[in-house]
């Protein structure tokens, strides 16, 4: 009994429910010597314990993954690394006197795979354990073959048994090299004295007629007839082809969000008194806030003395605000002559046009430097820049119609505005506000101490025609900040 059979006999894998049977899955237990060899030639086994089993379903993927070959014998699927140290030793050299020929037939027949069946681009699909077991593809290309014959891509091979990118690339390279350099099959006949030969054995062939001179081949199959004549089929086995080099690669990790990326500070907010008609029975201030590209929202903190702060709410949607790019002249209500030109780049805001009815119904309400206005047409003139014209309703809710210089603040009044109902005792007093921002994931937030401080003089939500002071500016001062 030869080496392969000795290594595998009697070592079927026990699952706890009996042996794995012939025709289903077969396995061999790897000894220490076999394991040490496997680390060099079996990428799917590397780094595992010596008791790791090498399982393979007949015609299944594991022999290809492990770069192994072998026959089924006595109910066992025998697998040998193609670059196995012992398997790589040539057992015997076969020369012309060893071949059995009949008549004018050639001692050795050679069949070569056509070039059209040889791919130079191999793709292996696997599940990457380092990337949350997402499906990825490892590729191997033979650039010399591609330059000569063009790109010939093989259909992607699904090896979901592989969980490592390094193993997948090794397997893809092994398949590519085998496809490129193992193209010939050889047929010859031997006498019964060569009966110790088995599939997977390496021999050399020498035949002047076919130009073979100690050419290494690996036996694929042996058939014995009734008189002991052995018909052998073998394939190319060039040394060095069945081992793969490690090529540099770029890791594929996909997009990984930075949940704690700093949000950055908010843009300068706009704080103003709300109109009486929109806040019946309440006194409110409205706040428009936006931020940079990492902005996801902010907390709103209020203080009456600039030292003791109280959280009064949270903003999760950026408001649409900006400034006038040209002076907005004073006019009449309704206004059909003068226009309002604005820039919303600061907040990345956009506007859509409405109708005259929308303007009359104040559905397109905006705040311009203390005056409430409603528009009908918003014409885009540049990125985030608009001209409001056609039909404007001005001086709404009792605010004065007046001229507004360039750079005056502009706010679109919609559901993104933060509304705060305050104590009437604050009318005429200065309040301090801070807006610690956080990113889109709720992380990377500012501390209250790092957030800029803004002042606002509460004007009171008075009847029409009476407006309180309304202004904001960042304040830089050294103070201890407490909150409750």
Radius of gyration: 41 Å
Query: Can you tell me the overall shape?
Result: rod-shaped
Structural class of the helix and strand makeup?
Answer: mainly beta
Give the rounded overall mean pLDDT.
78
- Share of residues in helices: 10-25%
Contiguous runs where pLDDT drops below 50 for at least 5 residues: 1-59, 462-473, 475-484
- Which percent range describes the beta-strand content? 25-35%
Number of domains: 3
What does this protein structure show overall?
With 484 residues, the protein is mainly β. The protein is built from 6 helices and 31 strands. It has helices at residues 3-8, 32-41, 62-65, 143-149, 165-181, 356-360, and strands at 25-29, 53-57, 68-69, 72-73, 76-77, 80-81, 92-94, 109-112, 121-128, 134-141, 157-158, 184-190, 202-207, 212-224, 230-236, 270-273, 284-288, 297-303, 308-315, 321-324, 340-343, 365-368, 371-382, 385-396, 409-412, 418-421, 430-434, 437-438, 453-457, 474-475, 482-483. The strands form 8 sheets. Strands 18, 19, 27, 28, 29, 30 and 31 form a 7-stranded mixed β-sheet that branches. A 6-stranded mixed β-sheet has the order 7-13-14-15-12-8, with no helix packed on it. The longest helix has 17 residues, at 165-181. Residues 1-59, 462-473 and 475-484 have low confidence and may be disordered.
């Amino acid at each position: 009994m030869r080496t392969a059979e000795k290594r595998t006999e009697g070592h079927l894998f026990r699952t706890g429910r009996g042996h794995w049977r012939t025709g289903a899955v077969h396995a061999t237990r790897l000894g220490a010597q076999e394991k040490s060899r496997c680390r060099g030639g079996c990428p799917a086994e590397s780094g595992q314990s010596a008791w790791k089993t090498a399982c393979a379903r007949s015609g299944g993927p594991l022999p290809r993954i492990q770069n192994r070959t072998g026959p089924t014998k006595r109910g066992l699927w025998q697998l040998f690394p193609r670059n196995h140290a012992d398997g790589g030793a040539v057992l015997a050299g076969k020369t012309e006197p060893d071949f059995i020929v009949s008549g004018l037939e050639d001692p050795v027949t050679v069949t070569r795979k056509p070039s059209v069946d040889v791919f130079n681009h191999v793709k292996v699909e696997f599940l990457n354990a380092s990337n949350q077991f997402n499906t990825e593809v490892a590729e191997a290309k033979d650039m010399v073959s591609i330059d000569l014959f063009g790109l010939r891509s093989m259909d992607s091979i699904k090896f979901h048994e592989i969980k490592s990118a390094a193993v997948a690339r090794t397997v893809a390279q092994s398949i590519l090299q085998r496809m490129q350099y193992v193209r010939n099959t050889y047929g010859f006949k031997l006498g019964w004295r060569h009966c110790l030969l088995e599939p997977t054995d390496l021999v050399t062939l020498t035949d002047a007629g076919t130009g073979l001179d100690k050419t290494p081949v690996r036996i694929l199959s042996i058939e014995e007839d009734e008189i002991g004549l052995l018909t052998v089929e073998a394939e190319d086995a060039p040394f060095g082809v069945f081992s793969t080099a490690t090529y540099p690669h770029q890791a594929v990790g996909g997009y990984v969000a930075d949940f704690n990326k700093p949000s950055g500070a908010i843009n300068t907010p706009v704080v103003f008194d709300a109109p009486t008609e929109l806040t019946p029975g309440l006194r409110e201030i409205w706040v428009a806030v936006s931020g940079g590209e990492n902005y996801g929202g902010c907390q709103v903190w209020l203080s009456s003395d600039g030292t003791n702060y109280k959280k009064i709410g949270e903003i999760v949607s950026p408001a649409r605000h900006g400034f006038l790019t040209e002076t907005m002249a004073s006019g009449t209500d309704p206004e059909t002559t003068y226009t309002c030109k604005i820039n919303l780049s600061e907040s990345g805001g956009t506007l859509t046009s409405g109708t005259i009815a929308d303007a009359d119904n104040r559905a397109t309400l905006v705040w311009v430097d203390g005056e409430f206005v409603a528009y009908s047409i918003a014409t885009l003139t540049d990125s985030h820049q608009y001209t409001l014209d056609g039909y404007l309703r001005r001086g709404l809710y009792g605010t004065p119609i007046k001229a507004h210089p360039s750079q005056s603040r502009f706010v679109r009044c919609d559901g993104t505005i933060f509304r705060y109902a305050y104590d009437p005792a604050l009318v005429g007093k200065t309040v301090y506000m801070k807006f610690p921002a956080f990113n889109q994931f709720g992380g990377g937030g500012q501390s209250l101490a790092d957030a800029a401080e803004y002042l606002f003089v509460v004007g009171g939500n008075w009847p029409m025609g009476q407006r309180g002071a309304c202004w904001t500016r960042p304040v830089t001062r050294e103070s201890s900040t407490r909150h409750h």
